[in-house]
Amino acid sequence: MTEILGNNFFFDWEIRLMEWLQSAVGSEGPLLSILSSLSAFGEQLLLVLVMGFLYWGWNKEFGKYVGVNVLVASVWNPLVKNIVMRLRPYFASEKIQLLRKLEPDADIMDVAAQGYSFPSGHSSNAVSLYGSLAAHEKKSRLLWVLAVLLPLLVGFSRVVVGAHYPTDVLCGWALGLIVVLLVPWLRRRLPRPAFYAVLLLTALPGFFYCTSSDYYTAFGMLLGFLLAEPFEEKFVRFESTHNILRCVLRTLGGAAIYFGLDTLLKLPFPKEVLDAGDLTAHLIRSLRYALVVFVDIGVYPLLFRYTGRLWKEKREG
Q: Are 47 and 39 in contact (CB under 8 A)?
């Protein structure tokens, strides 16, 4: 049996609260399904769709603003997790069940796959995403409501499904807020090369100590984004569109490329290599995600030139 590395610490009230919540909600049923589904507002699929809708369709610069914030939060979170190494709540109490896995196909005792607990990645993702939307569009009351409400719902969901202690959620919110305030401030005050260098230098130390796969995923995505942004500006220069249908079609195409290319790039490697958890597996994961994001952000928009012509011809015809 693989040795489980990590720290098991908590406040007594956290265990009592989580045990009570799970006994009240139950291990199955519609209420649990609803509460569990709230976690999706902080998960990868929705992040890709929201950022993609903004970047590929509605407003490219808005998409960049939100995208870099979310990606930095996604990297900084596992940097902290792999220092604190707090095990998830079901290690502390047999009464607490993990009702929504981070990696559905992995064993719940596989810490490298399921990740550490502190701080909550879903919570920091939610604040960095919805907080960035509101911070960019300061006059939108709706976005400010969502920036408060959705992270609250995500955090509550993570506690109910047994994935995080309440203190994980609180610190996840705090990390997301730091990113929303700090990263745009740095971008305004630093030349682009210096800004990129700061982000990469804060992210690189994880290669020396991070063991969970979420860090290597996030680092690859951030690297791909930072390479794709200047590439797009120099060679592609696509135009945004406020046509909702075109925004949706561009987003669906980008999402299909994102998940399809990720799957395709796994094929040359045996599953044992990808799941080994060693340096080779981590490098493959980071490079894979870097390539996926670079193609999606930098290369995929080349198609918009041709789809734009077809769209124009169709409307004129």
A: no
Say if residue 110's pLDDT is above 90.
Answer: no
Q: What's the angle, vertex CA 115, arms to CA 112 and CA 120, rounded to 5?
A: 170
Q: Are 64 and 55 in contact (CB under 8 A)?
A: yes
Residue whose token pair is 């309440």: 166
Q: Are 70 and 185 in contact (CB under 8 A)?
A: no
Q: How many CA atoms are closer than 13 Å to the CA of 166, on its beta-carbon side?
A: 10
pLDDT of residue 21: 92
What sign results for the dihedral spanned by CA atoms 196, 199, 114, 99?
negative
Provide the pLDDT confidence category of residue 312 given band limits of 50, 70 and 90.
Answer: low
Angle between helices 141-160 and 166-189 (to 10 degrees): 140
pTM to 2 decimals? 0.91
Cα(99)–Cα(101) distance, integer angstroms: 7
CA 92 to chain CA centroid, nearest Å? 26
The CA–CA distances, whole Å, from 223 to 248, 277, 286 equal: 26, 20, 9
Instruction: Render pLDDT for 212-245 as a digit per residue (tens, 0 to 9).
Output: 889 999 999 999 999 999 999 999 999 998 889 9
d(CA 315, CA 197) in angstroms, rounded, equals: 45
Burial class (CB in 10 A: 0-12, 13-18, 19+), 310: exposed
Nearest partner of 90 among 28, 173, 170, 19, judged by Cα: 19
216 contacts 279 by C-beta, under 8 angstroms: no
Contact at 8 Å (CB) between 297 and 232?
yes
Scored b (16 or more CB within 10 A) or e, 218-237 reads bbbbbbbbbbbbeebeeebe
